[in-house]
Amino acid sequence: MRKLILIPLTLAVAACGQSARNETAEAADTLSADMNATRAEAAADVARADAMMGADANAQMDAANRIAEASGNSADNGAADQ
User: Fold this and answer.
1) What is the average pLDDT across 17-44?
2) Terminus of the chain with fewer CB atoms < 10 Å: N or C?
3) In this structure, are residues 68 and 74 in contact, taking their beta carbons and an 8 Å threshold?
4) Phi/psi class of residue 78: alpha, beta or left (left: φ > 0; alpha: ψ in -120 to 50)?
5) 82 contacts 72 by C-beta, under 8 angstroms
């Protein structure tokens, strides 16, 4: 059944004029550029999120160290120093 559908479709595309082919190629180029831009933007968003999460984790570790030092313990050495 697929072959019966693809044969007329292939003939229809082959019968298109040069301007239709050019417009199709232009549309394909535009779609490709849009997809590349979207992918690049998504990658940048992920990188920003990773950086923010890393900064948040570092801030939490710094706070834990300050609390541990204030209580006489060292977060790096654990509670074994007591």
Assistant:
1) 88
2) N
3) yes
4) left
5) yes
